[in-house]
C-alpha cells in the first residue's frame, strides 16, 4: 500500500510540472497533500503511532481542503491571470525529469543503508524535493513559485515520515503554523501589490 501511495505522490508531482493552468496546479497540490496525509495515516497505523495518524488527518483537512480553497479565493478575488505557462518547454522537461530522478537516486545511494525504512522511499522523497525546486525555477509568476514552495513543504514532510518512521508532533505543528502564516503573508502581498 505504501509503495502505491508513494508512487502516486511522485507521479502527481511530475504531473504538476507539466501544468499550465493555475487551478489545475491547485488541484495537483491538493491531490499531492491527500496522498501525503494517507501515507502518514498508513505508516501511523502500521507503527501504532496515534500522533502520526492525527497529523495525517490534519494534513488532509488543512492541505487538501483549506489551502487550495483559500488560494482559489485569492486568485478570483485579485483577478490573477490563470495562465502559468512554464519557461522550460515540455520537450525539455520530459528529458530533465528522468535525469533528476536518476541523479537523486545515485546521489543518495551511499547513505541508503543507514535508513531503517525502505531505501527507495527516502530516494523518492529527496527526488520530490528536487522536482519541487524545478517547479519553482520553471515559472515566472509568483503564485506558481509559491505553489512550488508548498510542494517542497510536502516533500519535506514525506522525507521526515519515511526517514525517521514519523516525526515529533511539535515539529509537525510548527510546520502547519508556518504554512498558515505563509498563506496569510501571500494574502496580504496580493492585496497590496497584485500580480
Order of helices and strands, N to C? HHHHHHH
Indicate the mean pLDDT: 85
Structural class: mainly alpha
Could you say which overall geometry the principal axes of the C-alpha atoms support?
A: globular
Instruction: Tell me how many strands there are.
Output: 0
Say what oligomer this is: single chain
Number of distinct helices: 7
Radius of gyration: 17 Å
Secondary structure topology:
Blueprint: H1 2-17, H2 22-47, H3 50-77, H4 90-108, H5 119-137, H6 142-164, H7 169-192
Keywords:
single chain; 195 residues; mainly alpha
Put the structure in a nutshell.
The chain is mostly helical and 195 residues long.
Provide an overview of this structure.
The structure is a single chain. The protein is an all-alpha fold and 195 residues long. The chain has seven helices and no strands. The protein is globular. The mean pLDDT is 85. The longest helix has 28 residues.
Amino acid at each position: 500500500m505504501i509503495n502505491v501511495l508513494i508512487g502516486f505522490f511522485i507521479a502527481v508531482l511530475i504531473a504538476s510540472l507539466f501544468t499550465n493552468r493555475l487551478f489545475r496546479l491547485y488541484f495537483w497540490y491538493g491531490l499531492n497533500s491527500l496522498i501525503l496525509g494517507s501515507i502518514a495515516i498508513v505508516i501511523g497505523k502500521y507503527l501504532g503511532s496515534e500522533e502520526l495518524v492525527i497529523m495525517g488527518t490534519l494534513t488532509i483537512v488543512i492541505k487538501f481542503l483549506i489551502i487550495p480553497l483559500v488560494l482559489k479565493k485569492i486568485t478570483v478575488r485579485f483577478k490573477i491571470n490563470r495562465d502559468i505557462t512554464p519557461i522550460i518547454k515540455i520537450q525539455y522537461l520530459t528529458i530533465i525529469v528522468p535525469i533528476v530522478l536518476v541523479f537523486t537516486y545515485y546521489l543518495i545511494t551511499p547513505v541508503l543503508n543507514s535508513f531503517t525504512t525502505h531505501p527507495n522511499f527516502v530516494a523518492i522523497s529527496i527526488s520530490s524535493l528536487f522536482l519541487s525546486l524545478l517547479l519553482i525555477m520553471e515559472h515566472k509568476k509568483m503564485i506558481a513559485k509559491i505553489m512550488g514552495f508548498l510542494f517542497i513543504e510536502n516533500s519535506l514532510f514525506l522525507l521526515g515520515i519515511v526517514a525517521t518512521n514519523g516525526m515529533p508532533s511539535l515539529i509537525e505543528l510548527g510546520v502547519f503554523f508556518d504554512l498558515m502564516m505563509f498563506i496569510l503573508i501571500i494574502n496580504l502581498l496580493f492585496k497590496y501589490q497584485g500580480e
